[in-house]
Amino acid sequence: MCLGIPGQVVDFVDAEAHLAKVDVNGVRRTISVRLLAEDDLRVGDWVLVHVGFAMAKIDEREAALTLDQVQKMGENYQQEIDAFNDSEIEV
């Protein structure tokens, strides 16, 4: 199963390459935010992350609700976190 999981933008690693560091449940990774180039992302914003890409900008409430729901999925959620933990865009 493939899930989009909420991550909070904590830093912009390379603005020109559209790379940002996000925190997903305590795991920090560099992801591409190129698909959201028109969304004026800022540190502190929440995004929905899938396979190293920010797919959508979401608000804090939606992030909390989504995180709560995916955590209830148990093993599928853990597999997604493990995959996120093992992936990173190299700069």
TrEMBL record:
One BP annotation, GO: protein maturation
Coiled coil: none
Recorded GO MF terms: carbon dioxide binding; iron ion binding
Top-level taxon of origin: Bacteria
Pfam family name, one: HupF_HypC
Record InterPro entries: Hydgase_assmbl_chp_CS, Hydrogenase_HupF/HypC
Gene3D superfamilies membership: 2.30.30.140
Family of the protein in this entry: Belongs to the HupF/HypC family.
Name this polypeptide is given: Hydrogenase assembly chaperone HypC/HupF
Protein species of origin: Mycolicibacterium brisbanense
